[in-house]
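so my prof wants the structure for this chain in the C-alpha cells format not the other one, which i didnt know existed until like an hour ago. anyway here's the sequence
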Amino acid sequence: MKRSHILKLGMVAFLSLGLTSCFISDQEEADVALAKWQGKKINDFFFAYGKGEFQAQNSGGAKAYRWKSASRRVEIVGVSYAVRVEDSYIPGRFYEKIVYAPSSYRNYQCVLRIETSAGGVIRSLNNVTGTGECARYFSLSQAEIDALLEARK
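here's what i got, hopefully its the right format
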C-alpha cells in the first residue's frame, strides 16, 4: 500500500475520532435525560408525562410500570423515477419505464419500563423501544448537551 494512502486513512481515522466527541447519540441523550428522574416520585413522572400502566408488584412492595408516549405517525412520501429498459422484441432499442414507490407511514413511540420502590420512588427507567423517540421526547437542553460533550474531553 502506498504511503500516501496510509496517510489518508490515518487522517480519516483521526478526524472520525474527533467527530465522535462532537455529538451525543440518541441512546446517550435518552439515558441521561431519564436518569434525572431516578430518586423522584412516580406520581411526579406520571403528572408530567401521563399515566403508565401497572405491570407487577413483588412481595417487598416494589412495583413495575410500562409507560408509552403518544404515538407519532410520519408519512414517507413516495417517489417516481424513470428507468431505461431494453426492448425485449427489438434488440438495441430502449424505452423508459416509470417506476413508482408508494408513500408509506412509520409510527414512532417511546416505551419505558419503570421500576419503583415500595414507597413509590423511581429506581430505574429502562428504554424498551423507540430510542430515537425517547431522546426526542425527553430531550436535553443545549446547556446539558454541551456539558456532556465537555466532560468527554
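also thought this was worth mentioning. Residues 73-105 form one domain.
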